[in-house]
Amino acid sequence: MNPFKVFAGITIMMLGFMLLIISQFENVEYGGVIIIGPIPIIFASSQPILIFSIIAFFMMLILILTLR
Fold first, then answer.
1. Of 40, 53, 60, 66, which one has the fewest beta carbons inside 10 Å?
2. How many structural domains is the chain composed of?
């Protein structure tokens, strides 16, 4: 077993559980980025969350490219 993959799997599961808990509240805004090949698909429920998703995507992209 690869410890990194186990940690990544547990982290993704915890994020999923947190999203389920948060979704029980009213007035929840959401957003995200899905990368299919070289094309990012960015979605959000409101304009400020969309801008935050775009900024977070570029920050993660820069982090990944610098730590390569």
1. 66
2. 1
